[in-house]
Design goal:
This protein is α/β, with parallel strands linked by helices. The chain folds into 2 domains: about 15-255, Aspartate Aminotransferase, domain 2 (3-Layer(aba) Sandwich), CATH 3.40.640.10; about 260-359, Aspartate Aminotransferase, domain 1 (Alpha-Beta Complex), CATH 3.90.1150. Helix content is about 35%, strand content about 15%. It has helices at about 15-25, 45-60, 75-85, 100-110, 225-230, 240-255, 260-280, 305-315, 340-359; strands at about 5, 65-70, 95, 115-120, 145, 150, 155, 170, 190, 205-210, 285, 295-300, 320, 330-335. The strands form 4 sheets. It has a 7-stranded mixed β-sheet with strand order 2-10-9-8-5-3-4. Helix 7 (about 260-280) runs parallel beside helix 9. The longest helix has 20 residues, at about 260-280. The radius of gyration is 21 Å and the shape is globular. The chain starts with a strand and ends with a helix.
């Protein structure tokens, strides 16, 4: 099979050892005679998978004991509704807009109560995170919502604002497990799995215990974090196969040395690509240097008439899914944990070749 590198923003590349193991276990998981896709979610086989998956995630992120881990459905966009339903409690909430996904979060949450936009970089085309000193925070807000890595525009937070005790709710869909974080700094962390954890269909929510009693009485049980926590994420049938694959990814990440080790690899991959982009006028990245994402790297050709030729040539060399998001344009290389350094090296080599033949 032709060697390819998949730079898709999501659903995204998975570690090859994970895919090979899933292939080997497809028809008969550990002598059970069943595929994981066939198992009862309440049977001992799957409940064992779920328990180990949670334990490994807790180990990787060093999640404190006073946080619940939920395995839900609907992706991060469904959480845009679940968050205000579970947390507003008649108050207002603060939201920062730093890209297309946090803007969508504001739009979705606004149906459930008053949303205060405390900062926005939209007028600057989402090229940076606004200086924290300029955020108009409400110390009585129910929570402060941020998207700590914007997949579309390639903007990543460098630290967190001082929320003055207001719980910080963070959408980490596209960089969770890519860098060391202190979970205790957040009230809620959530993210769709299809970027850096596993296949689409699963959303992981990490929520502090003291935030589980704030849900509106109108919150459906399947959306209610407390109900889901008390039922081990099984009020309805969970995304069993997605959870299984996530568990394999967690095992792979532990074998790679954990989050601290993978962060160093991610730093090296991102540096290689950014250094080349910065070395030439043929390509450009417009994001402020201190907010450049390590996971999602957008770039633009100086002559955009060459975009189609660039993509066609990249595909011929096995470099796939490099077209930028439709709302941003240009190109985008998503280099999640599972993208090997060899993939970034192949991309940079192709970019150099393309520049030399089109300058």
């Amino acid at each position: 099979m032709k060697k390819i590198y998949n730079f898709s923003a999501g659903p995204a590349v998975l570690p090859r050892p994970v895919l090979e193991r899933a292939q080997a276990e497809m028809l008969d998981w550990h002598g059970s005679g069943m595929s994981v896709m066939e198992m009862s979610h309440r049977g001992k086989e799957f409940t064992g998978i779920l328990a180990k998956t949670e334990a490994d995630l807790r180990s990787l992120l060093n999640i404190p004991v006073n946080y619940k881990v939920l395995f839900l459905q609907g992706g991060a966009i469904a959480e845009n509704a679940m968050i205000p339903l579970n947390l507003l409690g008649g108050k207002s909430a603060d939201y920062a807009i730093t890209g297309g996904w946090s803007k969508r979060s504001v739009e979705d949450a606004s149906a459930y109560g008053h949303i205060n936009v405390v900062a926005s970089s939209e007028n600057d085309h989402f090229t940076h995170v606004p200086a924290y000193a300029d955020w108009q925070l409400d110390q009585n807000a129910a929570y402060l919502h941020v998207c700590t890595n914007e997949t579309m525009s390639g903007v990543e937070f460098d630290g967190l604002p001082d929320s003055h005790g207001v719980p910080i709710v963070a959408d980490m869909s596209s960089h969770i497990l890519s860098r060391v974080i202190d979970v205790s700094q957040y009230g809620v962390i959530y993210g769709g799995a299809q970027k850096n954890i596993g296949p689409a269909g699963l959303c992981i929510v990490i929520v502090r215990d003291d935030l589980l009693d704030r849900a509106s009485p109108l919150t459906p049980a399947v959306f209610n974090w407390k109900d889901q926590a008390e039922n081990h994420s099984m009020i309805n049938t969970p995304a069993t196969y997605s959870i299984y694959i996530a568990g394999l990814v967690f095992e792979w990440l532990i074998a790679e040395g954990g989050v601290a080790a993978i962060e160093q690899k991610n730093i090296a991959k991102a540096k290689l690509l950014y250094d080349y982009i910065d070395s030439t006028e043929f390509y450009a990245n417009h994001v402020a240097v201190n907010n450049r994402s390590r996971m999602n790297i957008p770039f633009f050709l100086a002559d955009e008439r060459l975009n189609d030729a660039f993509l066609k040539g990249a595909e011929a060399q096995g470099l796939l899914q490099l077209k930028g998001h439709r709302n941003v344009g240009g190109m985008r290389a998503s280099i999640y944990n599972a993208m090997p350094m060899s993939g970034v090296e192949a991309l940079v080599s192709y970019m150099q070749q393309f520049e030399s033949t089109h300058s």
